[in-house]
Specification:
CATH architecture of the largest domain: 4-Layer Sandwich
Shape: globular
Strand content: 15-25%
Distance between the termini: 11 Å
Strand order of the largest sheet: 3-2-4-1-10-9-11-14
Bound molecules: 5-amino-5-deoxy-1-O-phosphono-D-mannitol
Structural class: alpha/beta
Number of helices: 19
Helix content: 25-40%
Radius of gyration: 26 Å
CATH superfamily of the largest domain: Aminohydrolase, N-terminal nucleophile (Ntn) domain
Oligomer: single chain
Number of domains: 3
Number of strands: 24
CATH topology of the largest domain: Glutamine Phosphoribosylpyrophosphate, subunit 1, domain 1
CATH class of the largest domain: Alpha Beta
């Protein structure tokens, strides 16, 4: 949930730290800070609020701060303690020699704090992280070795963490470690890096080493030493990073979100590439390693996910049940982990996550794994913690997603579900071949239809301007597009803070209809197919209560003009594939409303891109 960056080498550390934090800003942005070693003294610079506030402080003291060639930095999403300067990282011990940045939660911090206070430590913040600084300083006093001090400290810490530590007496050493929170080391020439995530590294190096849980790494400009928590030396596994620095640029778009929405045609092509070559060929999905016989005999599938990924999972349920006849349960990971879930080795459990670092989903997946279920992970980050839990790993290849509001990763997850459902249907021989071929053809031409929507956004912009003053918003749909309604509502509330809700259109009359009056916009997702007429009647019911009606439709029926004040038309598409097209105008609608309202589109308040706490 927070972002960490560390640098040791020959560059001005502050430049690397601030650039690194800028590229990690999606992980949190309510306060930030750096620790550097200036003339043999560890010095901290911190600011509440956006990273720019820290940059302003650094600018004023740049001549001094830039002397340091070592440093650690942090960008925070508050868990323990409000987002104030005192609670911002790095944290330090009482003598000021140790500085620590941390991502995660120290579960036993209260006991540790009490003990440390009894031993004379004075705490200056409300954070759990400060305990680590005092603990490492205490251990250092005993063993006079920073790696050993960190190792001994981690033996006493419970919870999830990624930590970087520096000590004043060691101006060329960073020690870092992790447990259930990501950390990656970047290898340079005469310099080394460490960060929560790859974007902080790719402009400097493509050589990286992912830290595993309980590994401790000691970095100097010319060396990297890796040990486990029992002090055994470990072999390093260096990988080449697949990312290009250009992935982090807005490429002329005003916001990352808009850029990422516009990338979606290519994202669909990427997901399909190598897996679906022609409508008369079978889907190739070597990523699914579940034995075909076992797959044929599966009697249950559970899907766990959160937020937008949960909405993709809901579409996935619909597809798998429809194509394969296997019952599928979808559950928010955060609920799945706190009840008696019935799962065993005959259940396939699918975890869906853009980041692969969502704590709730990681826990859910691990819980299912411990019961012997085959774990299939659908993620945009094949290098993530969740990916490492996978028996079958299906990377969605959307490219790095910077905007906090997920867009292109959603469409990539949807397309992955289409491929998985088709693949399963082909293995099970459970679907009509002509129907399959038609769907495959439609998938192949889907990018062109998305491009058509993206080329003409005027109607959507008009609609956005007209309704940007609304306090509430209702999205209705039925069947396979119910998750589309939920996703449209989530996008809108995330970035514009408008109270938006998605309902199944049939449920409207069972309660929500009471809220309707002339101030309430109701957007009906009205795609041609078996529930079209039903949604139309539900829309009539809403109109009769004076709601302001908007249609998102692939129908050209002239009569719709009588019922709907605004009509957003999209290219014709089969009902079964329509969620992958209908979501695009909803993403744009949310974007333009937030943009008209002057909201911080890419970094909405209170949110962070990956939620690494439960
Ligand atoms: O990385 P994940 O897909 O596991 O993240 C799950 C949710 O936190 C995420 O989808 C969140 O709802 C997004 N901000 C949606 O735009």
């Amino acid at each position: 949930m927070c972002g960490i960056v560390g640098y040791v080498g020959n560059k001005k550390a502050v430049d690397v730290l601030l650039e690194g934090l800028t590229s990690l800003e999606y992980r949190g942005y309510d306060s930030s800070g750096i620790a550097v070693n200036i003339d043999g003294k560890v010095q901290l610079f911190k600011a509440a609020g956006k990273l720019q506030n820290l940059k302003n402080i650094v600018e004023k003291n740049y001549a001094e701060i830039s002397k340091s060639t070592i440093g650690i930095g942090h960008i925070r999403w508050a868990t323990h303690g409000a987002p104030t300067v005192e609670n911002a990282h790095p944290h330090s011990c009482n003598c000021g020699k140790v500085a620590v940045v941390h991502n995660g939660i120290i579960e036993n911090f209260k006991e540790l704090r009490e003990r440390l206070e009894k031993n004379g430590c004075t705490f200056r913040s409300q954070t759990d992280t400060e305990t680590i600084a005092h603990l490492v300083a205490t251990k250092f006093g005993e063993v006079h070795n920073l790696t050993e001090a960190v190792r001994l400290a981690t033996k006493e810490i419970e919870g999830a963490y990624a930590i970087c530590v520096i000590h004043q007496d060691l101006p060329d050493t960073i020690v870092a470690t992790r447990r259930n929170a990501p950390l990656v080391v970047g290898l340079g020439e005469g310099e080394n890096y460490v960060a929560s995530d790859v974007p902080a590294l790719i402009q400097y190096t493509k050589k990286a080493m992912y830290l595993e849980d309980n590994q401790i790494v000691t970095l100097t400009p010319n060396s990297i030493e890796l040990i486990d928590i029992d002090n055994n030396p470990l072999k390093q596994k260096v990988e080449t990073l697949p990312w290009e620095p250009v992935a982090l640029s807005k490429m002329g778009y005003k916001h990352f979100m808009l850029k990422e929405i516009h990338e979606q045609p290519d994202v669909v092509r990427n997901v399909l590439s190598g897996k679906l070559r022609a409508s008369d060929e079978k889907v190739l999905l070597k990523e699914v390693t579940l034995d075909k016989e076992k797959l044929r005999n599966l009697n249950r599938i559970q899907i766990v996910a959160c937020g937008t990924s949960l909405h993709a999972a809901m579409v996935g349920k619909y597809l798998i049940e429809e194509f394969c006849g296997i019952p599928v349960d979808v559950e928010p990971s955060s609920e799945y982990i706190y009840r008696k879930t019935i799962t065993d080795k005959n259940t396939l459990v699918i975890g869906v996550s853009q980041s692969g670092e969502t704590a709730d989903t990681i826990t859910a997946v691990r819980q299912a794994k411990s019961k012997g279920s085959h774990i299939l992970i659908i993620t945009n980050r094949p290098d993530s913690t969740m990916a490492r839990e996978a028996d079958s790993l299906v990377p969605v290849n959307a490219g790095i997603e910077v905007s906090v509001a997920a867009t292109k990763s959603y469409i990539a997850q949807l397309i992955s579900f289409y491929l998985i459902a088709i693949y399963m249907a082909e293995v099970k021989n459970s679907m009509d071949l002509k129907e399959l071929a038609d769907l495959k053809h439609e998938l192949i031409i889907l990018p062109q239809k998305i491009e058509k929507i993206l080329a003409h956004t005027e109607d959507i912009q008009r609609c956005a301007r007209k309704f940007s003053g609304s306090k509430d918003f209702i999205f209705i749909a039925r069947g396979i597009n119910f998750p589309t309604a939920l996703e449209g509502a989530l996008k809108l509330k995330e970035i514009s803070y408008i109270n938006a809700t998605g309902y199944t259109a049939g449920e409207l009359k069972h309660g929500p209809i009471a809220m309707l009056d002339e101030s309430m916009p109701v957007l009906s997702i009205l795609m041609k197919g078996k529930v079209y007429d039903k949604i139309l009647s539900n829309s009539e019911e809403a109109k009769a209560r004076n709601a302001r009606m908007i249609a998102l439709t692939d129908s050209e029926d002239e009569k719709l003009k009588e019922l709907f004040e605004n009509i957003i038309e999209i290219p014709e598409i089969s009902e079964i594939l329509s969620p992958a097209l209908a979501v695009v105008p909803l993403q744009l609608l949310a974007y333009y409303i937030a943009e008209f309202l002057g909201k911080d589109v890419d970094q909405p308040r209170n949110l962070a891109k990956s939620v690494t706490v439960e």
